[in-house]
Structures are given as C-alpha cells and as structure tokens.
Amino acid sequence: xxxxxxxxxxxxxxxxxxxxxxxxxxxxxxxxxxxxxxxxxxxxxxxxxxxxxxxxxxxxxxxxxxxxxxxxxxxxxxxxxxxxxxxxxxxxxxxxxxxxxxxxxxxxxxxxxxxxxxxxxxxxxxxxxxxxxxxxxxxxxxxxxxxxxxxxxxxxxxxxxxxxxxxxxxxxxxxxxxxxxxxxxxxxxxxxxxxxxxxxxxxxxxxxxxxxxxxxxxxxxxxxxxxxxxxxxxxxxxxxxxxxxxxxxxxxxxxxxxxxxxxxxxxxxxxxxxxxxxxxxxxxxxxxxxxxxxxxxxxxxxxxxxxxxxxxxxxxxxxxxxxxxxxxxxxxxxxxxxxxxxxxxxxxxxxxxxxxxxxxxxxxxxxxxxxxxxxxxxxxxxxxxxxxxxxxxxxxxxxxxxxxxxxxxxxxxxxxxxxxxxxxxxxxxxxxxxxxxxxxxxxxxxxxxxxxxxxxxxxxxxxxxxxxxxxxxxxxxxxxxxxxxxxxxxxxxxxxxxxxxxxxxxxxxxxxxxxxxxxxxxxxxxxxxxxxxxxxxxxxxxxxxxxxxxxxxxxxxxxxxxxxxxxxxxxxxxxxxxxxxxxxxxxxxxxxxxxxxxxxxxxxxxxxxxxxxxxxxxxxxxxxxxxxxxxxxxxxxxxxxxxxxxxxxxxxxxxxxxxxxxxxxxxxxxxxxxxxxxxxxxxxxxxxxxxxxxxxxxxxxxxxxxxxxxxxxxxxxxxxxxxxxxxxxxxxxxxxxxxxxxxxxxxxxxxxxxxxxxxxxxxxxxxxxxxxxxxxxxxxxxxxxxxxxxxxxxxxxxxxxxxxxxxxxxxxxxxxxxxxxxxxxxxxxxxxxxxxxxxxxxxxxxxxxxxxxxxxxxxxxxxxxxxxxxxxxxxxxxxxxxxxxxxxxxxxxxxxxxxxxxxxxxxxxxxxxxxxxxxxxxxxxxxxxxxxxxxxxxxxxxxxxxxxxxxxxxxxxxxxxxxxxxxxxxxxxxxxxxxxxxxxxxxxxxxxxxxxxxxxxxxxxxxxxxxxxxxxxxxxxxxxxxxxxxxxxxxxxxxxxxxxxxxxxxxxxxxxxxxxxxxxxxxxxxxxxxxxxxxxxx
Length: 1082
What we know:
By secondary structure, this protein is mainly beta. A five-stranded mixed sheet has the order 40-46-45-42-43, with no helix packed on it. A four-stranded mixed sheet has the order 2-10-9-6, with no helix packed on it. Strands 12-19-18-15 form a four-stranded mixed sheet, with no helix packed on it.
C-alpha cells in the first residue's frame, strides 16, 4: 500500500508507466498479452460527458460527446463508451451518443468505459406546435352528424397530451359543431376549427340538402277543358328537412287531358284521366287529374242532305264543350224520324231505304241537332254505250246499243238520245233497262256528239256521250276509183326492182336470168346470173321498176306465173290474161313486147300456171280448164295445140294442173286438186306424152304434201324437186314409191324454205336456184347439194332468212274490221292481227302494232268482228275475245278453245257480234249466243242452215244477220225472229255470185265480196238485194260482165273480205293478191 500511495507521489509519467506495467503483469497472469511491455499504458480514470444543449424537444436529437482521461487528467485516446438513458420514455441514446427526445421530463445520459462513467442531464420538452383535424373533408346531409377529431402535436408531429381545444363553425347555417360532433344544417360549405391558445386546425364540411320525397298539393283534382288551376309541390330530405323547390319540373302524362306550365298552372285540354308529376332531384310526386268536356252544343253539317236508295253516307257532326272545345269522344245517340225512308247507325252513317224525306237527329247529353234528309232512287248504271261504228253518212243509219241497269227494282227507266247534244232529245225509249238498240240517222254532216240519258223519274239519272263523224251522203258507183291501198306501196307502185311480191317461175338462157314477179305483173331480168341481192337490169311487162298495173297488150302482163327458155325463145305463162306470151328472141330491154300470144284453139289456154319448151315443143297447163296442152312443133303464131291431155285421173274432183317439170322424156305436172286424191301432188309420165294418155302414176310430195305440190329441174341423171323441201333423186323416179324415197332431203332449216303455190326450182350454170313464192325471195346453191345445208346466196332479200312480205307488211288474206276511228286487220295465213290506231288516209301507211296468233294463241283467224270496245277473232276451233280494243297488240281478254258450252267446234268460218248476240258459223251450223259467250255459255239458238252450209263469213247490223255459203248465196234472217232462222231468205246463186267469201250489212246497204267474179256488189237496201235486183254499184269492175282479176285503182283481185266503216269501204283481196283497198265514203 505504501507503494501505491507512494506511487501516487511519483511523477505522473512515472506513475503512468508503473500503472501500465502493473496492468501488463496482471494481464499476463490472466493470459493476456501486453502489446508494448516496454511503453507505459494510460488508464481511464475520469469520464466527462459534454452536451451542446441543456434542453431537447421531443423528436429532436443531439449528439453528446464523452472523453476519458487518466486520473492525472491525461486524455486517453480511442476510448470506447457505453451510453445509457435514465428515462427512455423521455429520451433515448444510441451507441454513439445520439440522444432523441421522446416526451417531456428530465433525463440523465451516461457514458461508461471500463466501469468509469460520466453523465450529463438534459431537460426534455413537448411543446404544442399545431393542431390537425380529421377527417379533413366530409359531406354531410342536413340532419346527419359526424365526429371530428382534434390532434395537438409539436413541431415534430408528436402528439401533445392534455391539450384542451375549442371547436367552432364558420357557417352554422351549413353545419354546427359541439365538442367535435358536427351536425348538418343546410346546403353549402363550412370550415370547422379546433383551437388551443394560438394554435388551431381546420376541417372542411360540404352540406347537402337532397330531396327524398316530393308531394303535390292537391293530390287529385277535376278540371273542365279550357279551365285553369294551380298546383303546388313541396320536398323533404331523408331527415324530414324541407328542401327548396328550385329546379323542380312539371309534366303531364296526357297533354290531351291537361297541360301544366313550369309554374304549376294546370290547363284543361280534354276528357280523360291522367297524372301531373313534379320532379326534383329524380324524386317525383303526383296528382291524379280528371279532365272533363261537358257538351255545350251539337251541330250537324248539311253536306249530306240527299242520298240514294241503298246508298250509305256518313253524316258529319260537330260536338262542342261549354268552353268551346271539340268533344271528339262524345257519346252521341242517332235517330231517324222515318226508318222506311232512311236508317242511321250508331256512327251516324245513313242508308237510304225508300224514296222520301225524313230527319236525322243527333243528341249528346242535353244537346241535340236535326238535319233534313232526302232519299232519292239510285242512279241507273250505263254499263256500256257503243256504236257499231263511229262514222256514217247523211241519211245512213248507224246503231247505238247500250246496257242500262237499274239497281232499284220495280222502277221504270226512260232513256233519251240527243243525237247532237243540242235542243230536245230526238229519241225517247220507255222502260229501257237492259240491252237496247237504236238506229240513228243524221241530216247534216260534221262531228256530232250523242248525249244519252237514262232516268228513273225519282232522282236517279245517268248520262254518257259518243262522238260520231258524219259525212255527206255518198254515192258508190260502178268502176269508181279507190282512194287508198294498204298492204301495198301504193296504186301502180312496186317500189323498186329489188322488192318482190310473190316471185314465181324462173328461166335462163345460160347468161341472162329471168324471174316472174307474179303479183307485181312483171318479169325481172338480169344480164348475168345473179349470185347476190343485186338489182335487175331490165323488166318485162312494165316500162320501169316502179309500175305494176296489169295490161292485156303484148308488152303487158297480168299475173305471170311460169317461164321457160330454149332455142333462144322466151315463154311466159300470163295467167290472168289466159295466154302464153312468146318472144322469138330473148328480149334485152324494158317493156319489150312479145312477138305473139298462144291462147289455143277457142281460147283453150285458161289461167295457165305452167309452161315448158325445149325449143321444139311447147307444153302448157290450162289450169282453169283442167287440161294440159302440147304443141309438138314450135308455133310461129297463135295455133291450136297438137295434143290436149284431159285424162288426169279418175274419181271425184276437177283437176287443176299447175307447174311442169320435164327433161324432154320424164314429164311431170303438179296438180292442186287431182281427181280421186285427198291431197295435191304430181302426175308423172315416164315418157313425154304425144297423145291424150293418162299419167303412169301419181305421187304426193315426200313430206308435208298439203303444203305445196312439186316442181323442179334436172342435173344430169339427177332430178331435183321443190315442195316443202328440196328433194334430190340420184336417178329419175319411175314409181310413186320412188318419189316417196328421195336420195337426199335438203331442209336448210335456218333459211326456212317457204315455197307454196307458184314456187320454182331451176338449175343454171351448175347453180341451183330456188324461187320461194311465199318466202318472197330466191335462194341459191353454188352446186347441187350433196348433204343438207344452207344456201350460198339470196336474191330479193337482205338475208337468207328474211321474208320481205313480213318486213314490208304485205299481208296475205287481209280481213279488215273498222269502227271509223281505228282499223284492225287479221290474216289467217300470217296468223297475225295488224292495228292502225287512227283511220288510214294515205296509201302504204304501215300498222302501229301487231299481235301474233301463235304460241299460246296458235290458230288461223278466219274471221273477225268489231263492235264498240269489243273485238273478236275466230278460226279453226278457237275464239279470241278482247273486251278492250287491242290498240297496242295486247293479248286477248279470253280465249275459247274446242268447246263453248255444249257446242263442239269443228272449223269456224265466220263470226259476228252486234252488241246483243254473238254469231258463229261452223260447218252446216249457225250458233247464236246472247251477249259475249264464255266457256260455259250455251247458245240461245242452234240452227242448221240446210243447203246453204253456213261455211262462210257472217254479219249482223242488229236488225238482220246474213252469211255467205258454198251454194253461191247470201242467207238472211231477222234478229228479232232468230227462232225461225232455219228457213232464211236468200239472194244470189250460181251466175249471180261466184263463191262469195264475205257479206256485210251496214248503214242500210248490203256489200257482198263476190270473190270468184273479182268484184264487190253493193245494194243500197237489203230489200233490193233480197229481190235479186241488179246491184246499185259494182266495185272493182267497170261493168257487170267483166270478171277478170286485176290489181289497179279501179280493179279488184279476188276480193275476199268487205267492211264498211262509215268513212270507207274496205276490201281485202284474198290468196293471190294481198291488197287492202279503201273506197271513199268521206
């Protein structure tokens, strides 16, 4: 001890070294080392803690420093201290001496090293720095509450305990606050403040006031239309607090009952129930509304003061409320003061019951009105008013026909006709209901308008009108000129050299080519064989290519049929001049006259269709005589034939020999009516006949023998014949069976070989020329065909398949029907209807429309009839009926086929309709139907016509019906006595008429198409015709003895149909001429 104490008196350095040595010694004993046993060690004896502050705010930090020193005060370096806090709730210290204030209080911080400690005392503070209020924002409906929390904090956001705050609201109308409990008061914004001393905190509150319920006062009301009243609306929120009504809207569910303004003004509009609705904040309140319309007046209109029996008419009624509004749904009671005059239903529709006067009463509530009502009988119905034609002459009657029906049974109708719609009616008919006819006659020309009136005397009246064109009284005279021609280019007008009209026979001298243009009465000539459609170089029978009138001199022709050239001589069969013209040298100029004419002994050459010569012999057919004439040597003038062949078969029938085919050995003659044969064909002599010997055999064409007979030519050992087709025989047939089996049949289907009567086939220069009469062109093959093929060229047409008869509207068998306004023409051969919508006045006028009787309507219309708006065409076993005129070629309204009622049709020849009856001739029967027949209509009369077989066309003027027959007579019956028509009156007969094809009764005249005598006979009255008196006029001939067919302005050629329309007499030429000639009336 003395040593320590002593050492304590040693110098500081000595003591320190001693202390360090002692420490190393002690350490060695403890197993420790001493790094430096030679240097002295410093031991901490004193720890000092230093702080830069004496007070520390909670949340703040301060770093304390500690130092160690020896007892002598020498600093000890690199001392490690352990730090500690005496109150960790007040402040904490970390291992590096960093002190963090936590709460208010006093704390001692101690630093210790090797058991030696030093400390520092600090004052910790918690000073109020701010107050936060939560939630910071909120929305509060009026009446609702929410609690706010105030949180006092120091600057480091550490709560400061035990701080009292005072609460306040910046807008107590929006929200109030009591100790943090906020109560919503109204809509708006408010700031809630918590305050302690100088410190405060805020929260924002949005106050809302939302409607939760809307009510309307009053909740129900009744209002008269036109009146007004006011309703109010109020609203509360969910807490029952009143909500201001700004923004509230009004609506009415039925504005037809009430309307409401934005201010709540209700206006009555009509009767009914509805609701009005107040809407605020999507909440609604309603009020039930009843609208009333109290009837103030009832007014009936006076625009239905007359009706007719069985007629219904709606009365017009106006019901007005006490405020002057219309009452559309008013309950109205309707009554009539006399139900025998008129009835009225619950809707105010009155119906006439009987003629007379009554009143109709309409009442609603206590109000009523009355209107007088007159019931008249119903208007008659004029179902139709027509005329058999709309043109006539002064003094010549036309017929009006009408159908008037009266819907009121038991009333007598009176009909009047004012023929010119001026002054008093000229004709009055009592009890004129149903179908009635009246002939009317005019005393002056001009356009007259017929006024037709039907009246029942009880207020029922109907009228209709017709326009009639009346011309001056016409005098038809024998031999008069026609004024117009259709189905032609004009009178004496062939148009040009390349337009044919049924070309026929051909001939050639090997260089020139000649072609008979039959219906143009000429022979066309080319200087070289044509192989295309080139114009001819000259013409015989005419002086130019335009003219086509016939003549009898040696430079004229009338219907040339066949040609033949041999030995430098040309022969032409001039059929209707009954001669063979002979040119001793080939003519080379137009109009060159023949050297002479062969007529045979006693004019035996009649209507020759065939001629042939080899330069030495001549053969010709005398078709009308049924004979074949042969000159064994070529005549130098008109001499008798060497041989007359009459033996052309046995059996019934009169032969009509036609074309001749011969090579000088085989001799074949076509025959249209061979005795004992059912069809036409050819007689064959296997060697040229030099005496009146019968042919070796007869043979029809191999196919379709009814279509045409055969004619042809030879090419070496081959024979070519043309009928329906071209048949080629590699060797000359010697039997009928050989004729029936040609080596080759050439049909040329795309070309349509349209041969027919008068066609021809010839071989010139190795080329085969086929002249097709009905095809109106010549086609050619550059060599004899060895297979079925199309021709190589065509002459007289723009193409192989074009038939210029059709494209030029050259009609075959035109049958006219006209009402004086329009013209309708049927053709049985063409199977067409041609329509002119206006009455043609110029020659060559083309039709406006056509209709084809093919396909679904496939038949040949043999006859037609026109009356008013009804047109009919009939033929074979069919009747086509148009109830509206087919001015555009429309399809028929009805097609009757095969049977009509109990009548089986076999072959219709004639049809007529006079507005009352329809007449049809079929075989030996005349059938008569009332009105227009339907498929189920039985005829009213069924008459067997006896010796007059009824096979011809028929006509009726409404007073008489007449028809032609095969006995050359015209038979007549009165329409009023049809039941006695089995024994009709008649006129004509053999010698007076020759196969008449048509008759027409019109305007008091009688017109007969005397076909076989090439004329139309006209009688100015039926009585003179029935007396077999001479006709008053003959059209188409200059006198009663001339019966030669000729075309010309004053001539006729086989007139087959005649029609008078008040403006013209139309004549359609039949079969071998196709003109439609019009003779002037107006």
